[in-house]
Amino acid sequence: MSLAHDARVPVHPAAGAQRPARTWPELNNPPAWVIAAILLIMPLIANGFFLIEIFATTMILGIMALSLMFLAGYGGMVSLMQLTIAGFSAYMVAVFGVSGNANISLGWPWWLAVPMALALATAFGTLGGALAVRTEGIYTIMITLAIGAAFYYFTNQNWAIFNGHTGINTVATPHFWGVNWRADIPFYYVVLAVAALCYFAVEYLSRAPFGLALQGVRDNPRRMAALGFNVNAHRVAAYAFASFIAALAGVLQVWNYRQISPGSVSVGACIDVLIIAVVGGITRPIGPFIGALIFVLLRTFALDFLVRLGLDGNRFRLLIGLGFLAIVFWSSDGVIGLWQRWRQRQRRDDVRSRGGRRHG
Description:
Blueprint: H1 30-40, H2 42-45, H3 48-75, H4 82-96, H5 110-132, H6 138-157, E1 175-176, E2 179-180, H7 184-207, H8 209-219, H9 221-226, H10 231-257, H11 267-280, H12 286-308, H13 316-330, H14 334-359
Antiparallel strand pairs: 1-2
Helix pairs in contact: 3-7, 3-10, 3-11, 3-12, 4-5, 4-6, 4-10, 5-6, 5-10, 7-8, 7-10, 8-10, 11-12, 12-13
């Protein structure tokens, strides 16, 4: 049987196969342009709180979840160490850069500290991926979770490098061209630019030969190996790319809060990234950002609502859990799946109504 006869294995476009249909947002999709325009003018219509605590935080968490979505959606590999990679990158920015802990930080300028942090975090995630790809299913999840838990306890107990449970505070942020890039509006645009680059990079790579081969490895690894593809090499490369995306999110995170501590890389926070990706949808790059927006809104306003009712603010996680169960119960592809089902129902109703008018 030829390769083209197996619908589960992608064919290189040069072989005559059509590229996969473009996913939302389309370049010619008016709602996509409207959303892009709103994001660009957001500083004109939102105050500093909404700009940073809601939208910038949403995009940073969305970038982390996007790295998980790439692995799970296109590679079939669920990793719970994406937040750990982001946290490692954040710690490296604080260690190599300038912070209030002068006895720990090396004092490098940001333009040296950030590339070093990205390189080390990418290498860290790639090594973790090289271990994870040797297993499948639940064992992959457990290995990545074990890496995340080990890193959390290591940072919590190590004082020489990570300053123990206190963490590293007052991390310096970039100042150049006469601009404080951590000020609300400049930082918002920095986060927006990085989020857009990561989103379009994942979109592009999913249609590139590597992305098509990775999806073939996801669907039928034995056939891809028989065709001469190195299955493990593709999976490790996917981890490397996803690790770089997560590392970018870690840099933005440490600049956002100006500090990093073990609480930022806890096991619970690692699972939050999984929840964000699943709630939004793991089959399309826009899904993680939708899930991140839902998570941030619940975390911000549900917490305040519960406190006003005299309840424990930590119970907002109960609301997140209930919402997670409800969405997964009704749609295996999160909010994106619910949206698609609603759109399909609308199209069917339109077709029926047109048919009824013709018969009438």
